[in-house]
């Protein structure tokens, strides 16, 4: 298996790894259901008003004899905006929406079981030009 965000299937076609498949699903769900000013980038936090998400260090909660596992995967969200209130409201929208979902969408390689807020939105910095930086962390329980 190759390192990175994809692997090759038996026929040589590239497909997403379970973690990247899940991250894409999480971001798509947040963009669709939350009150956001922009799309969530997986590449970088841009200089303009922007949102960014990345996977953190997860851990295995349960391992089954068939080698399937239940894992907790933290996802860090960052927001950069000239208005402090907008940073808080966008991250709060993501946290509340994803934690309160009654049924989670599924993808091909991963079952999304639950999401809880590990770190509420909080200020992590401010640029010299007055642009605010905020973050939050969501712990996501997945099965694959």
* Integer average pLDDT: 91
Helix content: 10-25%
| Number of DSSP strand runs | 8
User: Which structural class fits the helix and strand makeup?
Assistant: alpha+beta
Oligomeric category: single chain
Strand content: 35-45%
Low-confidence runs: none
Task: Please write the string of helix (H) and strand (E) elements.
Answer: EEHEEEEHEE
End-to-end Cα distance, whole Å, is 17 Å
Query: What gyration radius follows from the Cα positions, in whole Å?
Result: 16 Å
What's the story with the biggest beta sheet? Answer: 6 strands, mixed
Can you describe what's shown?
This protein is α+β, with helices and mostly antiparallel strands and 144 residues long. It has two helices and eight strands. The strands form two sheets. Strands 3, 4, 5, 6, 7 and 8 form a six-stranded mixed β-sheet that branches. A hairpin with a 5-residue loop joins strand 5 (59-63) and strand 6 (69-81). The longest helix is centred in the N-terminal third of the chain and has 16 residues, at 18-33. The protein is elongated.
Task: Summarize the entry for a quick read.
The protein is of the alpha+beta class and 144 residues long.
What labels describe this entry?
alpha+beta, 42% strand, two-stranded antiparallel ribbon, 6-stranded mixed beta sheet, 8 strands, 144 residues
Describe the secondary structure blueprint for this structure.
Blueprint: E1 6-8, E2 14-16, H1 18-33, E3 40-41, E4 50-55, E5 59-63, E6 69-81, H2 84-99, E7 111-126, E8 132-143
Parallel strand pairs: 3-4
Antiparallel strand pairs: 1-2, 4-6, 5-6, 6-8, 7-8
